[in-house]
Every structure is written in structure tokens, then in C-alpha cells.
Amino acid sequence: MLNVVFADYASDIGNDNKENAHYSRQWAVYIEGGKEVADKIASKHDFINLGNIFEDYYHFEHKRLQKRSLIPHTEFHKNLTNEAEVKWAQQQIVKKRSKRDLITIKSKTKFGGLKFNDVEWPQMWYLNRGQGLDMNVLGAWQEGISGNGVVVTILDDGLEKNHPDLVANYDPEASYDVNSHDKDPMPRYDQVDSNRHGTRCAGEVAAVANNSLCSIGVAFGASVGGVRMLDGDVTDAVEARSLSLNPQHIDIYSASWGPDDDGKTVDGPGELATRAFIEGVTKGRQGKGSIFVWASGNGGRENDNCNCDGYTNAIWTLSISSATENGLVPWYSEACSSTLATTYSSGSISEKQIVTTDLRHKCTNGHTGTSASAPLAAGICALALEANKDLTWRDMQHIVVRTARPANLKSSDWKVNGVGRNVSHAFGYGLMDATAMVKLARTWKTVPEQQRCEVSAPHVDKMIPPRSKVILDLNVTTCPGVNFLEHVQAKISLSSPRRGDLQIYLTSPSGTKSTLLAKRPHDSSRSPFTAWPFMSVHTWGEMPFGVWQLEIHNEGRYLGRANLQEWSLLFYGTTRIPFEIPYQRTSQPSSSKYKSSLSRTNTFYLNSKINKTGAHGSSHYFNRKNYKNIKNKSSTTFRTDKSSSIGNGENVKILPTISYRNLKTTKKYWNLNGHKNNNSTKGFSKTILTPLSTHSLPLTIVLEPGGESYSRQRVPDVFQKYPKIQQLFPLYVNTIPKTKAMQLCKKQKGKIDLILLCLERAQKEK
Question: Which residues catalyse the reaction (predicted)?
């Protein structure tokens, strides 16, 4: 399994590095026989063994060679590969990697020295504003959650381990200097403090609280370490060693860097770094998986797209974008379909920035960019991990998706996906909510095992003339093991005389449209996309079955014909529906251009309560504009997806239902044995049954809210009639519903006007 996935990702990722490449004097070498054999081979050929990358993979350096060269050292490479114990060797190419902070705008308040203490807390607006305008950290702290027992490592340019606001939480076991090959992560000092980045990121995560110094970390009880790996030549081996440092001790790796955000680079992890990711999520944290948090990128001004960054669009990373203090899209932010969620960061010159630790034992309120967003997300993840140490890396992503809040984030591209969640290319699923994540983590049940299937398209060698587009359909009728989606990748081989003229869109069977690649005016490269995995999280929770549409635009001129060689879809997800919780829909996301009929003025909120953040505490809503049409249409776009997990023989709360006439809510209870409880409402004549899920019922049908913003029916036809449901579930082909509850559901299906409730089985038949 690992080898298959590894091959998918390692295929030509980072091909931009091959242009004008600089070869280092370092090699990655796979040697069988252990360290003694590796040391012997290194000494024989005048190499130094710098240490392990992984088991049996070693990092060699040749001191007599120049630090960089424009040509590979084939003679030295041949000497290594001629050794019988050497199974693989690769001379390392120097990669361009950029820190994702910005030019610091001087604050109105001057900071310096050690005169700062937690009186700066009022300036940490992103943690303590209230009214739903922060990341709701106080609630988690009030529950006694501070990240205690969780280890976070910052992969960056070093860490000032003796900083007074960090030293108490510093963890040497989570630290290393890959650039200088020692255990001391202290940064290199210069006149302009060019290596302050890692120390700033560390303070956001774990600056000590109540010590009369500087700031407070989101997870001020967590341990923090640093890996110095950006202050020197960055190679595949350097990245791999950093990503795989002490994975049984470190819980979370935070990275605020990546390929150049210049709008013209396509690059990602090499073979070794890819393996480090895979081994991290499969073996790290005693098999629960290392958690990798990544800054989405600062190339907004250059019209960059983070789907051209193989780190942020990897399924193993939790990609984090930024929002300004006013809930706007920052000028530097990149919009793409791989972004999972958002935290606050800097914005315009008049907007506040992030307070954190700085070099030379100082403090700053000028940390910026998505560089500042990723560590805040890592700190929030640390809070959730303290609440539940058994969370896997995929559990964490599920929890982020389910708790992120779109409210108060302003963007014109908010949409509702096929399972009723708001999602945006600018903000992902919304602003991370620390308290909600902690509460959900406490009761979370591990998601089913990840499954994967690939469906190849028959369309090959498709020419796309200039100023034209092509739309290709791929009908997915079977996807072994994957019934509920997490990540979706479109693996595309596509060439063009000018790569930046290409635009790519993917539409799911439920109608969710993801922008996989937007036009990049600065990208004039002729280098193709070769099996490049464009990724989307916008279809999270949907089913893969039905017709997917790949739409490719070629905005080139004259003879600029593009050529699609091949493409396929990779689906990652689960056979059974993951742990179900009542889905708490927040208030409508803010947007001056958002004209959906689900705006607050057009919506009845049924039996809802306003919580402290201003969000509605109930997910039940009714569209005023479409109310007249709903009475007479069974394929309405009304939905309510609140559900609860149940076990066999338990009393099932089938959640608030709606009467057509007076819009009052009623509560109906049903026992899996088919008997109504005394407090239930008799009959089904004027009520709607909302979807219900159990651990043994892997099927949930949810319909989408309607409105002018939707151009097509968002519910697959297969959900319109119960008998067709079986066609989607080969695992349940022989399943015949026999319980009284199921029989009753089938009898009443003609009377249910607003939603079709279908259950595979109420419980397993022996």
C-alpha cells in the first residue's frame, strides 16, 4: 500500500527544480547492513555519514567537493552505486524554499527588551475578542486545556531555546540542527535578524503564560522544539530528516515555508520527503500518525495557487490560510481547493498583526502572513490532542472540518457542498474554533480505516485549442472501499506552450465545483504538469458515485494549443460513514456579493438559540423564498443534517421535524425494535424525517439548500427513489431491510415531501 501511494506522489513532483538545478555535495544513500556498513562505505569514498534519514537510508556529504555545482558529480555517484550494499543513491539538488512571513509593518506600539509581560494579552485580539470574532480559545483554557503533554516542533530556521518566554517549555528531544548536523537548534544571528522566523512561530504555539513576559501561546502548556533546516541548502534529504525527526515523541510538526510564492513555480516534496510524510502518518505517534500543519502560501499578489505547491496540496498536511482582523481575505492569501481551514493573521497596514516572541529575547506584535496562521493552527490542534490523545491524523482533519466556523469571514466564493457544509477557496471550511474542537475531541471515535481507489479516464491526447475549453465526463460507478469522501485528487498530465494560461475545474456528482488551478499570469514556463495531483477537500463527506466533470480552459493565444495526455481521479475516504455528530450550522458567512437565498433575512430559523458567538445553535433552517414551491415538490432543496449516533436497541432521537402549516418543530423518538415511545408524535402525515445514522448504517442522505446561486440540481438522481440506493453499495447488495422501522419508512416514502429517508438496515440480521 505504501509503495503504491509513494509512487503516485513521487512521480515527477518538483520538476521545476530540474531547470537551472544546483547540485549539492550531499547524497542520500540506501544501504543494507546497518550503520557500520554505511560508515565503512562512506569512509572508503571520502564521504562523511551525517546520520540516518530513515531506517537504512543515510545522509552522506563529500567535504572535498564544492558546496554547489551546476553539473552532477557522476564519478562520485558511480563509486557509491558500484558498492554491492548500496541499493539506491541520489545526489541532492538544492531547492528554493521561502518563509511565509511578509515585510514587517512597524507597529504603533514599540516593543523591545524584556519589559513585556502578559499585560500584552489585550493586544492578542485573535484569541480574546469574543463576539465570535476570535478563535474561541478561552473556552478551552477555562476547561483546563492548555496543550499539556503534547509536543510541537517548528520546522524552520532555528529556535532561540533560551528565550525567557520559551525556555520553560523547550523540549530538546523535539529539536535538531539539520543544517549543522548537531542537536542545538539555536539560530544564526546577523544584523537584520534574518533567522527570527522559527522563534516567532514557536512563541505563537507555546509561549509561557503568566510569567510576566511577552505573549501567551495558544497551547501554553505544550512542549515546543525547533528544527533548524532553512538556514542553508535545502535538499530532499534535509526535508526528509526534518519531517521524520523523532516521530514517536513529536505529535505535531508546524511548517510555515514552501516553494517560492512567485506565481510561476510548480514544486513539491521529492522522493525522500514524500516517504517521510507517508511514514509519519502511518507509523508516527505509535501508529496514530504525525500531524503536519502547513501554511498555505503568500502568493496572492502574484496570483499564485497553492495547488501548485506539493506540500499544501498533499493529503497528509493540514493546510491553513489566513483572515484579517476584519474577516477579509488578506492581499497575500492564495485561494485554492486544498485549504482546509483558516486562522487569523495580518492584513492591510491599518489592521493588527500577531503578537509573539522574537529574537534576542524580545517580543513583537508584527508577525505576519500565513507563516503566522499555521502555528496558531498547530497550537489549537495541540489543545484538541490534550483532550483526546488517541486522535489520529485523519481524526484531526475531520474535527477541523466539522468545527470550523464560516461566520464573520467575508468572501464572494462561499458555497454549500454536497453534504451541506459551507466551504470557500479562500478560507476552506472557515475559522478554526478551539473550544469546539476540544469538546468534539473528547467524545470523538476514531474514523474508519482510510481507503483509496483510482479511476482512470478514457480521454487521452486531447487537444485544447487557444481561447477554448474542454469538458470531460468520468462516470464513477464503483470505487472499492470508498463510499464517503475525504480528499479527492485529479492526477493530470497536461502541457501547454504557456503553463500559466491553463485553468482547471472539477465538479462532483453532487454539483460541488472546485477550482483546481486558476490562471497564473506570471507562469510562462513550458514545463508540463506530469501526473500532478491537484487536490480538493471541498467534497468532504460526499459520495464518489456518479458523473464527475473535468473542465480545462486554455487562455493561450494563436498557436498556444494545450494537450491533455491523461488524467485520473484518486478518491480517499471510508467505507462506513465516520463518527456522526449533530451538525451545528453557523450563521451565514459574510459576503457583500453572496446572494444565496439562505441569507439571514430570507431564512426562518427553527427552534434555534443564539450562542455567545452570535451563531445559531441549531442547524434547522427553512427557506422563505422557496416555501411555496416546497409544498408541491418532493425533490426540494430543503435539508437538515442534524443526526446522532445510536447503538442497537437504543432509543433513537429522530431530531426536530417540521409541520408544513405552522412551522412548529416536534420531536419524535423511535426504538430500533420498531416501537414508538409514549412521547413520540403519532404518524408521519405532516412531519419530515431527518437523516439518521448508526455505526451499522453507513448511509446518510442529505439535500442541499436552494437558491439562485445554484445552477443545477445538487442531489444525484439516485437519491430520489429508495430502490436505487442499493446500486451504490455493492457491499450491501444482498441486504433486505426487515426491521419494522425500515418497513415503515418504505411504506411512508410517498408521503415524505421534503426529504427522502432511506436506511440500509436498522441493525445487522443474524
Answer: 156 (charge relay system), 197 (charge relay system), 371 (charge relay system)
